[in-house]
Design a protein that fits this description.
Elements: E1 12-17, E2 22-27, E3 30-40, E4 43-51, H1 60-75, E5 78-81, H2 84-92, H3 106-109
Parallel strand pairs: 4-5
Antiparallel strand pairs: 1-2, 2-3, 3-4
Length: about 110
């Protein structure tokens, strides 16, 4: 069995597979990780992230999160971090916290009723 290609954040190719509702990370053409999501107008909920054990600790998960959050920002979408990996990553990278979805009830925020 051959060794998987070495991954570093610069060699991870991340793309949105909209038909499968997931982002895919590839290293040397091999699938190294995925991030499942549910998308609605104006909101992306990231529900599960999985990285092949051979690539753990090589920046694949971080590349998935950063790329997908950058795309959400470009699209003007809020993010719901259901996946613990996403929630933890965002908590360690404050520049992305503004993307987090926060529900505001009209009754609580003083808006029109």
């Amino acid at each position: 069995m051959s060794e998987p290609p070495t991954a570093d954040p610069q060699t991870v190719d991340v793309r949105d597979d909209a038909e499968a509702n997931r982002y895919e990370a590839r290293v040397g053409g091999q699938l190294a990780g995925t991030a499942q999501y549910i998308r609605t107008p104006g909101l992306v909920a990231f529900v599960h992230t999985e990285v092949d054990p051979a690539y753990e600790g090589h920046g694949v998960g971080g590349a998935l999160v950063r790329h997908s959050l950058d795309e959400a920002r470009e699209q003007g979408a809020a993010v719901l971090a259901v996946c613990p990996f996403y929630a933890g990553w965002i908590s360690r990278h404050p520049a992305y916290r503004d993307l987090l979805y926060s529900e505001q009830s009209r009754a609580a925020d003083g808006g029109p009723r």
